[in-house]
Structures are given as structure tokens and as C-alpha cells.
Amino acid sequence: MSDARPDQDDAQEARALEDVEANELARGVVRERAVWVEQAHGILLLRSHVVGFGMLSLSRRLTKPSSAGRRGKKGGRPTHGVMEVPENEHLQLTLEEAYYAAFEARLLYIFGIEDPAKAWLEEDCWAQFCSLDSNFPMAFAAYYKYRKAGWAPHSGLKYGADYVLYDHRHLMKTKAHHAHAPYCVRLVYRREDEADTTVLAESAPSLYGTLRVTHNVVKKLVLCLVVYPVSGGHLRSASDARSCISVRELMFRRFVPTKHLTPTWQELKKRQKIEERTIKKAQKYVPVAVFLKLQFVTERLCASTVGNNLKLQLAVLSQSFTEIPQKQPSMWKSLRTTQIHRLEAAD
């Protein structure tokens, strides 16, 4: 067995070099606490979709250079006195992203900067990443959980968080190339013998800063509590990290008293007046066909078997749209008859 192990390692390294040279897989080089992918085919392979891996160094999407002139028009006069500098853009992967892309998704081979001709094996890569970052096993356990749950975690450095989560399954169905990430994830590490309140109290100031930033960009903040054993020396592989580390989430949000208190009678009356004024203004500017269609639909829904509360709401809504302008009544009458016939024919 001892003689077969070096031969197996050499075969894997040779296959890794052949795949990289054939442009089949991406090639990543470890630099400090990140993995850089500099080849164009590797960047396209890992970033071919928004659910991919990593973040571009210039923090922008892969787009073709524009042929616009000085005023933004195609074919316009180019600017003079400006020298074009080529943009050497590379893809940056976090350690957990690189490990998942290499040994779970099988899209990447990782090399060291000291020996760029020798690809790292799974055991060697785990040991090297743990030496670079002591929290790597915990971060990988959280990253792995979100990936398997259908989310695509990306770097949340812009928002003061660890990850931003994209809906992987929704994006794969719609084939979208840009989407909004609804959640920001902040990782909080805790030992088994520590209490949650102690850890949260220590990180409270930074959490409030992250919460304010995520609120401004219309995202929700999720606290990911990663509980690891007291003696972490036996976390020697990804399977050990997944089995020994527990991950659970808490939704963290600001408490605004004016939004959570029960409204008073005066506030409810004020809201009702505002709604009435809004409806009257809408009746003046929105086309009458919209109101007629809404009135007909509400009458149909009220006649069907729905709940009493919904019937009451629809009846009030229908009554609020019955006031039709009195100018040219014959035109409004014919328009209403035509609209109803169209809806009945569509049904």
C-alpha cells in the first residue's frame, strides 16, 4: 500500500495538468488567504452563471468593451489624450469557495504559488487551508450547508457580511444573469461550552453596523451560529467538519416601536382618510377601463365561494370604484359593455 500511494498521487497530478492544459478545468493559485484564477477559460467556467463562484477583482460583470465615443454614442469621436490601459482582471475565491469548487463541484484544480506545477490533493489542501485560517472548518461547514440547501453564497464583503445568498434553483429555472440577493449572512463562531448570549454580546456593535447597511440595500440579515467542539484537533477532513459542527440561523432585525405597536383609533381614522383621498385621486388619472375591469372581477369573486372577510373587502373595493365620471355618459356605458363582453369571452 505504501508503494501504491505515490503512484496514485502522481497519476492524479498528471491528470490535473492534462485537464488544465486542455482548458477543461480552471486553475487556481493560492495567494495569502484567497485563491486566484487568472486564465480566461477558468473565469468563464466558474462565472458562466450568477450562481457560480468567486468575485471578480474589479467587481463587475463580464462584458465586452463598448465601441462608444466620448458622448456614449456608438461610433462617436474617441477621446484624445487618454491612454488605454489593459485590465488584468482575475477571479478571487475564498478558501471555502475554492475547496468546494475543487473537490465537490470538480471544476477547479488548486496549485501553490511555490510549486505551480503540482496540484494539491484533497488532504493536502484541507491541511493548508486550516493553517492559513483557523476558522476554515467552521466556514466551510456553513458554506456547504447553504450550497446543499439550494442557495448560492457569494462574498458579502461589500455589505460588511460574510455571504450574500442567491436563490440557486430560481436562477437556474429563469436563466437570469443578474438577480437580487435577499439575504446577507454573518457567521458567528461559538464553542460548545459557550452561551449564545455571550457571543452575541461581544459582536453586537459590528452586528448593528452590518444591520444598518443591509437595511439600506433592501436585504435581511441572518446570523449563522456555527457551533464547533471544544477540541477541534480532530477536524481533519470535510466529512469531519460536516458531522461535528452544527449550523443554525437566527433572523436579526431592528425593532422600531412605531411599526410594532398597535395603532390607536386616531391613527386608524387618519389612515382611512388618506386611503380615501388616494382612491379619489386615482379615479381621476387612471383610465376608466381599468376600474371597470376591476369592478367586474370583484363582482365575480364576491359571487363565488370565498371567505366572508374576503367578500367584505372585495365589496368595499368594488364600491369604491363605482363612481364613474359623468362626462359623456354614452361613451362610458358602451366602454363598460364592451369590457364586460371581452372578459366573458376570455372566460
Automatic annotation (TrEMBL):
Q: Name one GO molecular function term.
A: tRNA-intron lyase activity
SUPFAM superfamilies linked to this entry: tRNA-intron endonuclease catalytic domain-like
**Which regions form coiled coils?**
none
Q: Which reaction does it catalyse?
A: pretRNA = a 3'-half-tRNA molecule with a 5'-OH end + a 5'-half-tRNA molecule with a 2',3'-cyclic phosphate end + an intron with a 2',3'-cyclic phosphate and a 5'-hydroxyl terminus
A single Gene Ontology CC term: tRNA-intron endonuclease complex
Under the heading CDD domains, the entry gives: tRNA-intron_lyase_C
- What is this protein's name? tRNA-intron lyase
